[in-house]
Amino acid sequence: MKRPVERKPEWLKVRFPGGPNYARIDRYHREQGLHSVCRSAACPNQGECWSRGIATFMILGDRCTRDCAFCNVGGGAPLPPDPREPESVARAVAELNLRHAVVTSVTRDDLPDGGAAHFACLTKAIRAAAPECKVELLIPDLQGDRKSLEMILSAEPDILGHNLETVPRLYPQVRRGASYGRSLALLSGAGEIAPQVPTKSGLMLGMEETREEIVRVMEDLLRAGCSLLTLGQYLAPTRRHHPVTRFVPPQEFDELREEGRRLGFAHVESGPLVRSSYHAEEQFEEARNERG
Fold this sequence. Notes:
Number of strands: 9
CATH topology: TIM Barrel
C-alpha cells in the first residue's frame, strides 16, 4: 500500500455551511429524528446542498451490517426497521418542498430482502405526499437477490443508483463483504427489469487506483447499462479508515468527465467534492434528455 497523504490541497476546502435553507433543513432533521447521509457520512457538500434546499435521506437506521474501510457510518447490530419511517420521510419531503429526493440506506444483510420492501414502501409514500417530486434511490447490493430488486423497481423510482465505490482490485481492502461482479449484475438486472429507469453509479478516487482501472470500470458500467456516473475524491473519515494515497487534481477530474462522456455516459459529474447525490436533479434531467 502506498503511504497516505496528510495535507489537504486548497481545492478541497469548503466554506462553513449557513443560510436560511441550511438552518431550516438542519432544524427539521433534529426535530424529527431523521437520519441524513449528509451528516452520517460526513459529506463535504452538506453546506452547499442544504443551502440550496437539497438533502439525502438515509433510511433503515444508522448502523450498517458491513464494515467497509472507507465509510463513516457506524457498524454494529441494527434495530428492526421502523414501520413509521416511510411516512415520516415522505412528510419531510413534502414539508421541505423538495423537487428531487434522494434516499439511501445502510446495508441490511440481516433482513431477508435487504430492506427492499422498506424502499418500495417509502417510494410510494413520497409519490402520495409529494407527487411532483422526483425520487432517486441509492440502494445496497441486496446480496444479489433479484426478487428484492424487482420489489424496489415495482415502486417506479425515477432513478436507481448503486455505487461500485472503487476498482475491483481494491475490493478486498475497501469493500469487505461486497462483490464487484454482484454489484455490476445488480445494475444490469435493473436495466432488464425496468429499462425505462436510468441507472447510476459512483467511484471514489485517491485509493491507489490507476487511470486505466478507472476507464475499465467505466466500460464495465456502460456494458451493464448504466447511464449516469459520479466521480469524487475519497476523504478518509478518520485515521482508522483506509488512507488517502493521492489527492486527484481538478484537471484530472475534468479529463475523466470528458472521457466518460466520450465513452457514452449520458452524464458524468466529476470533481474533488462530488458525491453520489451532488447535482442529482441536473443529472436526472440529462438522463431524461438523452432518452428523448
